[in-house]
Amino acid sequence: MTSSQDSERRARHASINRGRRRADEPNEDFSRGFDTLGELALAGVQVSARATDLATGRVLFSVDDHVVMPTASIGKVLLLVEVASRLGHASPEAFTVLDRAPRDAVGDSGIWQHLQTPSLPMADLAAMVGATSDNLATNVLIRHIGLEAVRARTEALGLTRTALLDLVRDHRGPDDAPQLSIGSAKELTWLFASLARGEIVSSEVSQRVVGWLSLNSDLSMVAAAFGLDPLAHRMPDHNLLLMNKTGTDGGVRSEVGVLRGPRASVAYAVSMYFADTKLASRLAVLDGMRQVGADLLEYVH
Q1: pTM value?
Q2: Which fold has domain 3-300?
Q3: Could you tell me which residues belong to the region Disordered (predicted)?
Q4: Among 13, 227, 269, 287, which residue's CB has the most CB atoms within a 10 Å radius?
C-alpha cells in the first residue's frame, strides 16, 4: 500500500468517526456500527451511509452521505414511482397487460424468467420488482414506460445525485452505462422518508410504491439484523414494520429502507463499493451492514 492510499483510508476512517458525533442523545449509540464501518474503510471499502428519525427528520448519523455511489437495483424504485403514478383509478394503463419479448431477456434476480406466462399486467410486474427485484419485469416496464419518463420523474422529484441509468443487462459493454443505477445516501434516505409520509407525487402513489416495496424478500444486508420473516413481513412483527429495497452487483451492496418500531422510526441508506475478489471481503461488508442494522434496531425498539 502506498503512503497516499494509506492516508486516504485513514481520512475516510476519521470522517466516519466524526460522523459519530451526530448521534448525540444519551440513549443513542451507533458506535458499534461506526467502528465496523471505520474498519471497512481502512480495508479499502468505499462507504456511504445515513439515517434520519422519520418523525423529526433529525440526522442520527451520516458517513459521506453526499457521495454518489453505484446502487445496482435500488434505482428500480424510481421506475416504480413512475409506474405507480400511471396506475390511478382513471387511467386505462391500470389494465394494461404487457408481453415479454426476447430483447427483454436477462438473468439473475426475479421469478418471471422461470414462469410460463408470457404476459402480465403492469401492476403485477411492479409487484414482482418490489418482491424479488425481478430483472425481466424491470426491462419490460422500462420498455413500456421509457427511461426518459423515469428521468423526467426523477428530476421532478428534485433528485440530482440519484438515477436509473439503463436497462438491466447480463453484460455491460463500452457503449452501455457502467452501472444500472447510482445514488447518494442523503437523497435516497429523503426519498424513502417521503414515500413513508405519503409525499412522493401523491399519497395514493406513495402508498402504492410502499406496498410493492413491503414485499421485498431480500433481508440479507442491513435488514438481516431485524429478525423478520423475509417472505412475510407486511404486518407488524414484534412491533417492527419494514419497507426496503436492496441492490446487489459485483462489488456493490446497497440498501435503503424505513424501519418503524415502538419507540421510533428511521429512514436509512447504506452503500458499500468494494473489491469483491474474496469471499471474506464480501462477508465483512455484509457483517458491517448487519451491524448498522443492529444499531438501528436498538434505536427503534
Answers
A1: 0.90
A2: Beta-lactamase (3.40.710)
A3: 1-30
A4: 269
